[in-house]
Amino acid sequence: MPSKQNIAIIGGGWAGLAAAVELCKHGHKVTLFESAPHLGGRARSIEWNGMALDNGQHLMIGAYQKMLECLKTIDADVTKLFKQLPHRMLMMDAQTGNTAFDLQLPTYPAPLHLLFGVLNTPSLSIKEKLLLLLRFNRLLNTEIKTDISVSEWLSQAKLPVSYCKNLLEPVCLAALTTHPHQASAKAFQNVLQQTFNAPANFTDLLIPTTDLGRVFPALAKEYILKQGGEIRTRSKVQQLQSEGSRIKSILINNETMSFDQIILATPPVASAKLLHKQPGCEKLNAQISRLEYEPVSTLYLHFERPVPLPYPMLGVINGISEWVFERTLSGHNDVLAVVFSAQGKHLKMPVDELVETVYNELGNIIENLPELLHSQLITEKRATFQCHPDIDKDRPNINTGLNNLKLCGDYVYIEENNQPGLPSTLEGALRSGVKCAQLLLSNLN
C-alpha cells in the first residue's frame, strides 16, 4: 500500500472536484484551493431576482456515464437530481413558427432507437428516411482517416440537406461550441458514436431538478469534507515554486505551502500563467498557447406567467436563437433560458435589441407568449476551447514536465480506446478529473 499523500488541487470546477472526490475515496489528504468565493467554475449557481439559476445552461444526457459514476460515489440520489426523458430533437423555424424537424428517440438499444426515431419523423418521405438511415449509419461507422471540417464531412456523406441544415449542423454547434465549417469531423463523430452506438438510455435527456451548483459542486464539497479533506475558497494560487523536476511549494494568498502531489485544475489561460517558465513544461505551454476559445451566452427570460414548451428543450433555426430550455423542473416555470454558442451576430447586438429579437422569435414559435418581466444575459467569453480539426494535437496531456504536478480540465486530452477526445463538456471535465487522480494513484504504487 502506498503511503497516504498530502495533495493540493488548484481549481474548484467540476474537474478539480472530481479529482478531489476520487483521491478522498482512496484515503488521501486533499486540500482544494479555489480563487472564487464559490465552487463549480463555469457550471455554477447564480442568484437572479431571488431565483437560483445556472451561470450557463448545460445539456446532460444518459451518455454522461462518468457524471453518473461521480454522483454515485458521493451518494447522490440521481433519481431526485434528474428527470430522465427519451430524447426529442424538436427543431422550430423562428420565422414561420413551423416544425422544421422532429426526431423522437425511444429508449431502445442501438440501432433500434434511431431506426424507430427516423421512421416516425413526419417531415421526411419514406425514401428520405431509408436513405438517411443508410447514410447516417455509414457516417457513424466509417473511420475518418484525415480530420476535416464537419461541413465537408456532411457534404461527402450526401445526407438529406434538410437533415444536415435543420438538425446535425445545430447539434454540432451546440456539442462542440464550434461552427460546422470550423469544427472537427473526428470530434463530432466521436460524440455521435458515444450517443447513438450505445445502450438504450444513453440518448435520454437528463433534466436537472435543481440548479447546477446543487447537482454536483455542493454534494462533492460535502463528501470531501466528510472524508477529511479541506476546501479553501477565495484562495488564489500566485506561483508554483519548483526545485529540480518537482514543485517544492506553492504561494497562495502570500502564504507558502508544501504538498506531496499537486493537480492543476484551473482553466487553460490560468494554468499557462502558473506553468510559465517551469522546467520541462515548454511543450505543454506551447500546446496551451495554441488553443483558441469560443464564448457561450445564456439569455434568461422571466415572464409574467408560466411558459410551457412542447418539450423541455427546443432547437431554433433561421433565427438568432439557437436552443431554448424551460426551467420548470428546477422550480421556475415562468423562466426560459435561450442559449447561443460560439461567435455570432448576437455578440454584436445591443442587449435590448437581442432581447426584443429573441422575444419576437419565441412569439412565432410559442402561442400566447406572456409579457416579459425581466431579462438577464450571461456571457462566458472563454467558455470552451474551439474544437477545430486535429484539435487533439493542441491539447495537453495529464502529465507535465514535473514529477509531482498533473493537469486536468475539459481541455486536457484523455486517451480512451484510441478515440478522439471529448469536446468541452461537463462530462469531459469529470472524466479528466477522475483519470488524472487515477493516474496519480497508479504512479504512487
TrEMBL record:
Pfam families xref list: Amino_oxidase
Record InterPro entries: Amino_oxidase, FAD/NAD-bd_sf, SQase_HpnE, Zeta_carotene_desat/Oxidored
Amine oxidase domain segment(s): 15-441
GO MF assignments: oxidoreductase activity
Name the UniProt record assigns to this protein: Amine oxidase domain-containing protein
Native source species: endosymbiont of Galathealinum brachiosum
